[in-house]
Every structure is written in structure tokens, then in C-alpha cells.
Write a structure and sequence with these properties.
The chain has 65 residues and is mainly alpha-helical. The chain has three helices and no strands.
């Protein structure tokens, strides 16, 4: 699955490619903004939501990375 990391872990380059694939799906999704709003409101800590990574959402809500 593109939106969450594998259970066994992944190398940095694999993570970057997976996140880019997930973000490319998000950019054409009709509920992208609603998904991001949900993730920010619920402070989702894992996965790609609304085209953003965990780190990007933490920065958006002002949490230290």
C-alpha cells in the first residue's frame, strides 16, 4: 500500500518513492482537502493523508518534528 510504510521498514529512498506515489494519487482525488482536514483535526500521526506526510502535517499544526 502506498499510503502507509511496510511493517518491516524501508530504506530512505524507498520511503521517498512510496510517498511520491501516494501524493500523486492524492493530487487527483476529489476529496483531497477533506482528507487533509480530517487528518489535521484528528492529528493523524501515520501515513499519507490529503497529500501530506506525517512530518508535513506536524509542521502545519505547529508540532515539533
Amino acid at each position: 500500500m502506498e499510503f502507509y510504510p511496510p511493517v518491516t521498514g524501508e530504506r530512505r529512498d524507498q520511503k521517498q518513492r512510496r510517498e511520491q506515489r501516494a501524493k500523486s494519487i492524492c493530487c487527483s482525488c476529489p476529496v483531497n482537502q477533506e482528507c487533509l482536514d480530517y487528518a489535521l483535526t484528528g492529528r493523524e500521526l501515520h501515513g499519507i493523508w490529503g497529500g501530506t506526510t506525517e512530518t508535513e502535517r506536524r509542521e502545519m499544526i505547529g508540532l515539533s518534528v
